[in-house]
# Entry
Amino acid sequence: MIGIFKSEAKHRFIANIEINNTIEECYISSSSHLLNMINLKNRKVLLKNNKNYSKRTKYTVQALWENQKILLNLNYVNEIFEHYLKLKYKNHIIKREQIINNYKCDFLNVSINKIYEVKTLLNDKEYITFPNKTSQRCVMQLKCILNILDNYQMQYAFVLLNPNIKKIKIIKNTEFYFLFTEAIKKGMQLSFYSVCWENKDCYINKIKDIPLEYN
# Structure
């Protein structure tokens, strides 16, 4: 189903979408307002039927659906990233959301003791500042990561939903900056991925490294 994005509700998780000349509330799978990250007003969006009947809405906003297609269903990122890992490591044991010393990781490859921390990046510019203003969660995660780096391989995985993002800016002299650079010195690896489309299905694709700018 294709609709036209009209507005977001005051409360999170709801957007007003025009479908066949009727405005209908649709679910947004993001804890932040999408319009703070990307201009969607009066643009075509792909809608996904909600199989979970406990939801009050019939559809979830899945993607910006124009010449440039951008995944907007942020919860879906980990689903397709898990699929990517299982294809890459066909005979390995991949587990989601494992607790390791009070740190909840996105993925753990049990077979090689490797952790993936997935960070989704979304905007409509050629650069993005990471993390955003609400960076405390990232700070707490990095503190936990530094405590386990001696025992695990660590992959900090940036997933770029907009393929036009060419640079990631990290603000210097912040707690995140000091922890992030220290983790890299101790062996944390960075990797970069994009979301590619085949018809109305999408998948994760590893891409070359994106420049990090510290300023």
Observations:
- Residues 76-214 form a domain with the Trna Endonuclease; Chain: A, domain 1 fold (CATH 3.40.1350.60).
- The longest helix spans residues 76-88.
- The first strand starts at residue 2 and ends at 8.
- The chain has two domains: 2-71, 76-214.
